[in-house]
Amino acid sequence: MKLLHIDSSVLGPHSVSRQVSAAIVDRLRKATPRLEIVYRDLTSTPLAHLSGSHLAAAQGATPEAALLHDLAAGQAVLDEFLAADIVVLGAPMYNFTIPSQLKAWIDRIVVAGKTFKYGAQGAEGLAGNKRVIIAISRGGFYGSGTPAAVGEHLETYLRWVFGFIGVKNLELISADGVQVGPEHREKALADALQAATNLHAA
């Protein structure tokens, strides 16, 4: 069984989402014999954002020489995702949505003919056989009924985009209010780490 572990926080060891995603992976490693783990840090090895040249190459145009390395990196990212049985994703909220590094990764895995296709009934996801667990961290509180709920574009986006490629039952572990104050941060992190420990085995 293969697990793909993705982190996207720019905060290194100070990141809440990194601590929680690591705890999730540790839980699954201990519970699953012979689990093969691939790790990708999107801040230490960032992907380029898509350009017109990327789209032209995807449509069959001969890519510029300068683009070849990045196209190979994008293909490697897609191959990692396709090969994974489990995906563990660390996703902090930056300015009400996902980090741009994570968006660049998503742009490389949401690919027609690979993770979704269009048919007579519209779009059909092709990646529904994966277990996807997301460690979310948010500085404030964005739950339903809160004043800031309308500004929540992290969890809502991730639910939609993974649902689009076929993953309907995302497992989310959230640490909320980590910038409200030290006590809130400590409790949010402790609760999220406990939730990671309680995850069922793969």
UniProtKB/TrEMBL annotation:
It is an enzyme of class 1 (oxidoreductase). Binds 1 FMN per subunit. GO terms for molecular function: electron transfer activity; FMN binding; oxidoreductase activity, acting on NAD(P)H as acceptor; oxidoreductase activity, acting on NAD(P)H, quinone or similar compound as acceptor. FMN binds at residues 9, 15-17, 93-96, 137-140. Its EC number is 1.6.5.-, 1.7.1.17. It comes from the Bacteria. Its cofactor is FMN. Keywords: Flavoprotein, FMN, NAD, Oxidoreductase. InterPro entries: Flavodoxin_fold, Flavoprotein-like_sf, FMN-dep_NADH:Q_OxRdtase_AzoR1, NADH:quinone_OxRdtase_FMN_depd. It holds the Pfam family Flavodoxin_2. It catalyses: 2 a quinone + NADH + H(+) = 2 a 1,4-benzosemiquinone + NAD(+); N,N-dimethyl-1,4-phenylenediamine + anthranilate + 2 NAD(+) = 2-(4-dimethylaminophenyl)diazenylbenzoate + 2 NADH + 2 H(+). Belongs to the azoreductase type 1 family. Homodimer. Also exhibits azoreductase activity. Catalyzes the reductive cleavage of the azo bond in aromatic azo compounds to the corresponding amines. This is FMN dependent NADH:quinone oxidoreductase. It comes from Bradyrhizobium lablabi.
